[in-house]
Amino acid sequence: MDKKIIIGSDHAGFRLKETIKIFLNESGYTVEDIGTYNEESADYPIIAKKLCKFINEKKYDKGILICGSGVGMSITANKIKGIRAVVCSDTTTAKFSRLHNDTNILCLGQRIVGEYLAKDICKIWLETNFEAQRHLKRINLIED
């Protein structure tokens, strides 16, 4: 498992991003933070597009985006070819998004999930592998 990950947030996800960064570092990950770096208003599409570019350039296999609900980040990310982003507020969705959909970006909502649940979601999402034999055909259909 690659222990590098990229993370970004807007102002509404800044505090949770900081918490998740600490959790990831403590879990052995090298984390690149692409912003935002405070709670001043920031436009989530800019952060999402920047993170997706790193994923598509294969500099990172996976990324985490955080905003108020996770929805804006996921909508923006999923507009970009090669990205399969999931917004999660429970561990089951996190698990099956990896098993069946090979998601490469996890989106979280600071206003939706607490820090303990967010850590559990991240752990499960990062540790679950894609079941390619069963679902690769569908991933290819999505990409086409």
Question: What's the SSE blueprint?
Answer:
Blueprint: E1 4-9, H1 14-26, E2 30-33, H2 44-56, E3 63-67, H3 71-78, E4 85-87, H4 91-99, E5 105-109, H5 115-127, H6 132-143
Parallel strand pairs: 1-2, 1-3, 3-5, 4-5
Helix pairs in contact: 1-5, 2-3, 4-5
* Integer-rounded radius of gyration: 14 Å
Reported by name, the CATH topology is Ribose 5-phosphate Isomerase B, Chain: A
- Write down the oligomeric state: single chain
Q: Shape from CA axes?
A: globular
How would you sum up the major sheet? 5 strands, parallel
Q: What can you tell me about this protein's structure?
A:
The model has no long low-confidence stretch (mean pLDDT 95). With 144 residues, this protein is of the alpha/beta class. The two termini are 27 Å apart.
Brief summary:
This protein is α/β, with parallel strands linked by helices and 144 residues long.
Q: Which features does this protein show?
A:
single chain, 144 residues, alpha/beta, Ribose 5-phosphate Isomerase B, Chain: A, 5 strands, globular
